[in-house]
Amino acid sequence: MTTWYNKVQALSFTGAERARQPAFNPEMHGRLKGEALAYDVLAHIFGVVGAANYPGTTITPVTAGNFDESEVADMMQLCADDHWPEMGRSLILGTSYGANLLKQGQIIDASKRGDGGASFRSGRVGDVLGFDTHVSAGLVPNNTTAIACTIEADDDIVTAALHGFADGDRVIFPTLTGGTGLTAATVAYFVRDATTNAFKVAATPGGAAINVTVDASAGTVRKYEDVRGIAVLPSAILVGFSPVPPTDGVRKKLVDYQELSDENGLTIQYRRIAYDDTDEEVQAMEVHYSFEVGDAAQLKIIRSPLA
To answer: Of the candidates 264, 297, 239, which has an alpha carbon nearest to the alpha carbon of residue 84?
Structure first.
């Protein structure tokens, strides 16, 4: 890992603000900032999740309202067919998919679950069909805003300025009508072309370019990974944490400094500093981390149907 990142969440307040706002609770606000920091880091890391990096087979797209233990069983079968080890499987779901799974009687009903009602009390899904299941707002769809494009049917070229797509990205064309090969309902995969801002698309990752008959002078295109959940093994995304401690001189100016780590190695640095001239206290939490794509075969993407 050669590229390192850092994200920060901070809280500041004065003595007057704390004294005159009885409901103000720095500890509670600190926890909220800590959760926000975790979501920021997760959203950044999960940004690598997409067809270009993880093109493997997955379950049929399903809406959040229809995602239940049957889809988890289908995913379990796919993982078994691909010889995933039984240990270490995780299922990470976006909030709407995780909430609907939690509603299922087999999971929330304590008499069926056998966990004494822990799921109902805590709102955590827990173990389901061999997956350690989590719900996270940090799992982002990884879609981009639609940008203008033109399509030349004679050479199957799509042109979009500053598109930023990479080989294998999953794209759609929301406003196209008529012709064949591409419509608003077509999911395609980016194929790089030698011309700046120009590209072709394939029906499958790494496939041959689609034969396009529509000739559109004004259409739109967007990256549309539509990530709603993932089944994953630990080596699918490689993540490292490396805190950068303050120098001795800076450390002497801090009221408090701590490094807090969890069982996964995620390390948060906590700094607390006070300014007597302004009667202000600042508490900051920071994470230094790096990540890269690991084994592409160890992650499967759950998507919703294309609207």
So the answer is: 297
- Cα separation, 197 vs 274, in Å, equals 51
- Encode pLDDT of 30-49 as tens digits: 888 888 998 899 999 999 99
- Residue 104: domain span: 54-140+228-235+296-303
274-294 tens-digit pLDDT: 998 889 999 999 999 999 999
CA quadruple 121, 123, 124, 130: dihedral, nearest 10: 90
Last residue of a domain, one of 200, 224, 248: 224
Same domain, 214 and 266: no
Task: Cite the beta strand spans of the chain per DSSP E.
Answer: 5-14, 90-93, 126-128, 131-135, 147-152, 157-159, 170-172, 187-192, 198-202, 219-223, 227-232, 237-241, 256-261, 267-275, 280-293, 299-303
Q: Answer for the pair 262, 249: CB distance below 8 angstroms, yes or no.
A: no
171 plus 215 within the same structural domain: yes
